[in-house]
Design a protein that fits this description.
about 10% strand, two-stranded antiparallel ribbon, 16 helices, alpha/beta
Length: about 450
């Protein structure tokens, strides 16, 4: 017979805990001393208690089923096949192919891979009916789970131009594809762009919902799951709550359109806090970010190699990134419990607050013409830039710390000799319909100054 040892103790209310903390503060103000405000204007308390707990709606997250995804840029098809086979043999169970050219022999690529139990994502830099139909035909024939991740609005936001010159043609093409395809999922939302450009979590969620709402209003017969490509940072518990709030609100809005399919969330660590100097710390950052992704309910996680800022794709960086996820799954047992964040008063509280604030911002966007109008008018870009500037100021002043960069830098660390890629924002003057949303890392200015002194 088991005995509940907690019965030996009298329950203590949240009021009593607060009084005890106030006594220990020796007269200091409780709210000013131990309560802090996040960039999302959410008050974080020193403790959370059952008598203040408000349960969120049930979330259908499946941590036991999260997939380890490998990013592969396809240029030489045979080399991409070789790399995919290698990564699948080493523990990955999902692949994301980035393709920029529709001349790639996509059928040949897929036929050479054992995809029976593998989820495949495509990141396409173009929109082509014939190309997607080839993928769909293969998926139908072989009963493979494939997500094509077409996102014309995301293309406009990131590049400044549509896939096809006229806005109308992009949505007409999507509608034609949806009428002709049955096996593959087509639509995706590039939420990672907003995070990597410096948006707050509330903005990331609200803009993603507005982004999705444009598709619900402009695209017919969405009968497959929509994919959200999300980036997560190192604010551990908040990032867990962000993913939960995103899924919660998407399902709430989707039901208004009789879309009853849960979204599919593929997560990557953010680029925003990654550094060129003391680059091994990037492994610590990506590990906690992947942990947030799993607990928050990601369907798949594509880890970011620690050297991705300055090295071309390489076997060692990929292996380390993949092994981080394998350790979390097979040695840290992160895949043993579904909905692991349920019942955590702190995470549930943050989830509720993020959801409420994001829904308020989403409603404001819709009341003022919708996401696409505000994107075309430059409002989304301006709002993200304001948030990014505020975060940059905190970093530049030393209040936001990246170890090895603006705190305890190793002055002997030299990187100029090791650069295979240009790790900073690239300026490429060209004609665009709108000013694109630009991704930028916090450490770029400091790193450029240090490189100039080497």
């Amino acid at each position: 017979m088991t005995t509940n040892l907690y019965d030996d103790f009298n329950p203590i209310s949240s009021k009593q805990w607060k009084q005890k903390i106030q006594f220990e503060l020796s007269g200091a103000d409780y709210n000013e001393t131990v309560v802090w405000n996040s960039p999302e204007d959410i008050q974080v308390k020193p403790f959370y208690h059952k008598d203040e707990f408000t349960k969120t709606f049930p979330l259908p997250t499946q941590a036991t089923q999260f997939r380890i995804c490998q990013n592969i840029f396809v240029y030489d098809v045979d080399k991409s096949i070789e790399r995919a086979l290698d990564t699948l043999s080493r523990g990955a169970d999902s692949l994301r192919f980035s393709i920029e050219n529709e001349t790639i022999d996509i059928t040949y690529l897929l036929e050479k891979l054992p995809l029976e139990k593998v989820t495949v994502y495509f990141h396409l830099s173009f929109i082509s009916i014939d190309f997607v139909k080839k993928i769909d035909a293969f998926a139908k024939k072989n009963n493979i789970t494939i997500f094509c991740n077409l996102d014309p609005i995301g293309q406009l936001a990131k590049d400044g131009n549509w896939f096809i010159t006229k806005e109308k043609n992009n949505f007409e093409t999507l509608n034609l594809l949806l009428k002709q395809t049955l096996a593959v999922s087509l639509l995706s939302i590039n939420t990672a762009l907003y995070q990597n450009a410096g948006a707050t979590m509330v903005q990331q969620i609200a803009y993603s919902l507005g982004h999705a709402n444009e598709y619900f209003n402009r695209v017919e017969a969405i009968n497959k799951p929509i994919v959200f490509e999300v980036a997560v940072g190192t604010n551990y518990f908040f990032e867990i709550a962000k993913l939960r709030a995103l899924r919660l609100l998407f399902n709430l809005i989707a039901k208004e359109y009789d879309h009853n399919l849960d979204c599919n969330i593929i997560v990557s660590p953010t680029k925003r806090n990654k550094t060129l100097y003391d680059y091994n710390i990037n492994m610590l950052r990506t590990t906690t970010e992947c942990m947030s992704a799993i607990i928050g309910g990601a369907n798949a996680i594509a880890n970011l190699p620690y050297d991705s800022l300055y090295h071309k794709d390489n076997e060692f960086g990929d292996r380390i990134a993949r092994n981080q996820l394998l350790i979390l799954k097979n040695e840290s047992y992160f895949d043993k419990v579904n909905n692991p964040a349920d019942g955590s008063y702190y995470i549930e509280n943050i989830t509720n607050q993020l959801a409420e604030k994001s829904l308020t911002l989403f409603k404001d966007i819709e009341a003022n013409g919708g996401f696409l109008k505000q994107l075309n008018d430059g409002i989304i870009k301006r709002k993200i830039q304001e948030s990014a500037d505020a975060a940059q100021e905190l970093f530049d002043s030393g209040k936001d710390i990246l170890l090895g960069t603006n705190k305890y830098p190793n002055k002997q660390d030299m990187m100029k000799h090791d650069l295979e890629l240009f790790p900073f924002v690239k300026v490429k003057p060209r004609k665009t319909l709108i000013t694109p949303i630009i991704e930028k890392r916090l450490a770029e200015k400091i790193e450029q100054e240090r490189l100039g002194l080497e």
